[in-house]
């Protein structure tokens, strides 16, 4: 561990502000963020946001009108499909998948309404906990992350904080040192001799950690005061619990893409992972906030750090891989809706599609790995839920290219029918996201679900096919120096 202090003028020669004049503690940031989000609904008037909502509504309603107007054309198109050699089998497969997805949706809805987060336990019952924060080119945000963790409502004598700089090229190490100066013995800091990737930084943390529970937190994330307590409590009440996923929301939710992503995150976590948790089979514990039982980690640590895909070391998808290996051991993986974390997301298209490509490649790899055990006797209790969720993932991958080909043919032969039917489908499907988000939070922000669906459908539809074709490629893609 390095102890020398870096001169702040090395990075901020023109900045005379002290740390105390900067942002407040992480929990305060979380509260400010929450209050700001609520005030935006009544006090902020953004013409661009209003214009986007209006354009989105016009597009979807126009699509619905055109589908109604061209109903006879759609009927003829379906008849032509059925009469063609390839059309009938495709229609049959599409119908079966539609029935499967519809049934699965209502089953998840049932599971969601029966889900409840585990209540937080008292101080004397809480286990010892090691929080690992790997950092690479995060700048001052890592300081805020560590401050929010230190301000947690968790017994200090049971909490070990580790910050590991993964060979950053900016001032990240300086801000980690400043956090050390402020927190003293509560925080241990380490610096990797060179950038080896997030997996290796976490591996070092796992080897150094002394807690019964490991918690991993991204260095661009802020936790709520009661997050750690809520996240760790399921391990106390359930000895079969091997990992717990936190509830991720967007920190930088001022720009348009983050606003869209925040609605998407709420659906992904508070709806989908709530349902998966009822089955004891959350498929991915997010890197932004996750907790693991120590024994479960060390049972697969060697396999995890040495994981390869097509002969190459795996340097992406470390969170999904760890989840997969813990599920394989027969443990339950749960979700805690009351364990909130705010994290930074890309604000530009390039950063967004790179993030999705990385996630897509990881999804392909881990579904291949999951196939090796999911239909075996990996768990004593029911394995139906895990297999059902896996089948859903498998169908998405398997049907990616057939649906892409069908879409391209549809676009070439009947472009207006394609656009109108797609817009109507978005209106129908995304309305659930709007209803869900507005019920959980507020109506105004929920409208971004429509815009996000249109944006994703027409500009990111290629992600899954591309991720499948390039699943063997490595690289984080988004780990460059932040743009000032």
TrEMBL record:
It is found in: Cell membrane. GO terms for molecular function: hyaluronan synthase activity. One of its GO terms (cellular component) is plasma membrane. It holds the Pfam family Glyco_tranf_2_3. GO terms for biological process: extracellular matrix assembly; hyaluronan biosynthetic process. The chain crosses the membrane at residues 48-68, 88-107, 394-412, 418-437, 449-469. Keywords: Cell membrane, Glycosyltransferase, Membrane, Transferase, Transmembrane, Transmembrane helix. This is Glycosyltransferase.
